[in-house]
Amino acid sequence: MPDAAVPMTAAAIAALVNGRLAGDGSLPITAAGPLDRAHGGALSFLTSARYLDEFTRSAAGAVLVPEQLALPLDGPRVRIAVADPSAAMMVALRALFAEPAPTAGIASTAVLGRGVRLGREVTIAAYATIGDDCVLGDRVRIGPGAVLEAGVVVGAESDLGAHVVCHRRTRIGQRARIKAGAVLGGTGFGYASDRAGHHLIPHVGGCVVGDDVHIGANTCIDRGSLDDTEIGTGCRIDNQVHIGHNARLGNRCLVMGGAVVAGSARIGNDVILAGHSAVGGHFTVGDRVRVGAKSGVISEVPAGTDVSGFPARPHREFLRAQAALYRLVPIIDSLEDMVTRSGGE
C-alpha cells in the first residue's frame, strides 16, 4: 500500500468531500486502501451493508460511509458520512496522491526541428524528437523518447507518455492523456491487390483526436486514406486497441483492452466496446450501444442496443440461444444411448 504524497487530517478530508465527521478529526491520514488491508493511518470506504463484516474487522484509520447506512459499534471509529462513498473516495485520492507538477523545460538531448512552435511551460523529456513545424500548446508534456513527425499539433495541457509516436497529419486536442508506446496516425492497412501482389494505397488523410481523450499503452490509431480517422471528445481507449483507417468514434466512447474497430466503421456517441470485441469495416454502431466482450459486429447495430456473441446479436437473444444449445447436450446423449441399446438388441 503506497504512502500518500500529501498527508491530511480526517477533518480536512471530511471538509474536502463535504462529509459529516464522527470521531477524531485530528487523525493523520497518510495512505489509502481496501477495508481488509488498510492500516491505522489509511483511508478506506464502505459502499453498502454487504461489506459490514469487513468493516467491523477493518483496521483502517478512517472510513467514508453512506449517509443512510446504520453502522455497527465495532469497526473503525473515525467515520465520514457522505452521499456517495465511491465518488468521495476518488476526490480524496486525488488530493492524497496528487502528482507533483512537472518542471517545465526542454531536455538537452531532445531534438526540435525547424519552425516548431511551443506554448508556455512546455515540457519535453530526454531524447524526444519534435519534427518540423509541430505546434505544442501551453503546458504540453512530451515523454522520453517520444517522436512527433512534421506538422503534428498537440493541444494545451496534453500529456504524451514515453515512446509515443505521432505520425504526420496527427492532431491532438486539449487535455489528452496518451500512455507509453501508443502510435497515432500511422499508415492504415489498405492495399489494392492484383496478380502482381498487394500494393499500399496512399494514406493522405489525418488522425484527429478530440479534447479530453485518454489513449492506452501500445494502442494504434491509423490515419485515414482520403478522409480523417476521428476520435470524439471524452473518449477513453484502453491498452492494445486498434482503430483502423477512416474509422470515426463519437463522443464519450469506452473502448476496452484488445478491442478492434476496422476501417471506415462509424461508432456513435456513448458506445461501450468491451474487451476483445471487434467491429467490422464500414458498419455503423448507433449511439449508446453496448458490445459484449469478445463479440463480433458484422452488421449495423441500432442505437441503444446491447449485443453480444459472434455474430453479435441482441444480448437476450444470444443468451437464449446459448441456453438452448446447452440443453441439446443431454438430448443428444439420450439419443446416442438409445441408438447404442437398439444396436445391441
Q: Which percent bin holds the helix content? A: 10-25%
What is the 3D shape? flat
What is the topology, as strand order, of the major beta sheet?
7-10-13-16-19-24-27-30-33-36-38-39
Largest sheet: 12 strands, mixed
Number of strands: 39
- How much β-strand is present in the residues? 25-35%
Class from secondary-structure proportions: alpha/beta
CATH architecture descriptor text of the largest domain: 3 Solenoid
- CATH fold field value of the largest domain: UDP N-Acetylglucosamine Acyltransferase, domain 1
Radius of gyration (CA) equals: 26 Å
Which regions contain 5 or more consecutive residues with pLDDT less than 50?
Answer: none
Quick check: average pLDDT? Answer: 93
CATH homology-level superfamily of the largest domain? Hexapeptide repeat proteins
CATH domain class name of the largest domain:
Mainly Beta
Number of helices: 4
Considering the chains and any ligands shown, give keywords for the structure.
345 residues; alpha/beta; Udp-n-acetylmuramoylalanyl-d-glutamate--2,6- Diaminopimelate Ligase, Chain: A, domain 1; UDP N-Acetylglucosamine Acyltransferase, domain 1; 10-stranded parallel sheet; 4 helices; flat
Task: Describe this protein's structure.
- With 345 residues, the protein is an alpha/beta fold.
- It folds into 2 domains: 3-96, Udp-n-acetylmuramoylalanyl-d-glutamate--2,6- Diaminopimelate Ligase, Chain: A, domain 1 (3-Layer(aba) Sandwich), CATH 3.40.1390; 164-311, UDP N-Acetylglucosamine Acyltransferase, domain 1, CATH 2.160.10.10.
- The chain is built from 4 helices and 39 strands.
- It has a 12-stranded mixed beta sheet with strand order 7-10-13-16-19-24-27-30-33-36-38-39. The protein has a 10-stranded parallel beta sheet with strand order 8-11-14-17-20-25-28-31-34-37, with no helix packed on it.
